UniProtKB/TrEMBL annotation:
GO cellular component, one term: mitochondrion
Name this polypeptide is given: Uncharacterized protein
GO molecular function: metal ion binding; metalloendopeptidase activity
Keywords per UniProt: Metal-binding
Bilayer-crossing regions: none
């Protein structure tokens, strides 16, 4: 069975108007933490790893998706293992909600983004200082949004800097964002289920039933 990962996809309202606060980046900053007690550490204890946590860019307008992806391996490829990984993610999200938004943590994120977005000195000692445009292109290449989506969603003035240079803090906006990251309404997909359906050659109706069973199990 080809096992790749578990993907938890959360539908969201359009996040474009919140680019100066970037609640999704605040949550991503917490989920990607490598400190003791982090989500990554908890998943590692059970043989999983966090693959990504980010907004998804399908070129959509008027709504968004936030996706948390967990990497599996050949040893933890059973439905029971998948359930454990999903529970770990939701328990961690519940903990973040219970603690509530933290101004100092958002400020840490703001300074980190500002430092990363500013032109750097040198890639290595043998190269000339990085051109600001090269630095900008490197950031856009790894950005959650494509350049086309940025031009579609943001004003011409903010198209390149939006979400890289956050300038505001709103505990309410972050708390509202976290209310969407719950088991209610989440779409959970996994190549574990895809592999089962493929091997059994299930018709579409039974495949959809299998997906629903997987979501309810989480």
């Amino acid at each position: 069975m080809n096992v790749d990962g578990i993907h938890l996809v959360f539908p969201l309202p359009d996040q474009s108007s919140l680019s100066s606060i970037a609640p999704d980046l605040y949550v991503k900053h917490l989920l990607r933490s490598k400190h003791v007690g982090s989500l990554e550490a908890s998943l590692n204890l059970h043989g999983f790893s966090l693959n990504s946590a980010r907004l998804m860019d399908f070129g959509q307008v008027g709504f968004d998706f936030f996706c948390i992806s967990v990497q599996c391996n050949a040893e933890n490829n059973q439905i029971e293992d998948e359930n454990m990984a999903i529970k770990i993610v939701f328990r961690y999200l519940a903990m973040i909600r219970s603690v509530g938004p933290l101004n100092w943590l958002h400020n840490e994120l703001r300074l980190t983004l500002q430092r990363e977005f500013a032109p750097k000195g040198k890639l290595d000692e043998s190269l000339e200082p990085m051109d600001p445009m090269i630095n900008l292109l490197l950031h856009l290449a790894s950005d959650d949004y494509s350049l086309a989506t940025r031009l579609q969603r943001f004003s011409q003035r903010d198209a390149l800097t939006a979400r890289h240079l956050i300038t505001e803090y709103s505990a309410q906006a972050i708390a509202d964002f976290l209310t969407f990251l719950t088991p209610t309404g989440v779409l959970c997909t996994s190549l574990i289920l895809v592999g089962i359906a493929s091997r059994l050659q299930l018709p579409d109706s039974q495949w959809q039933a299998l997906l629903r069973a997987g979501r309810s199990a989480g």
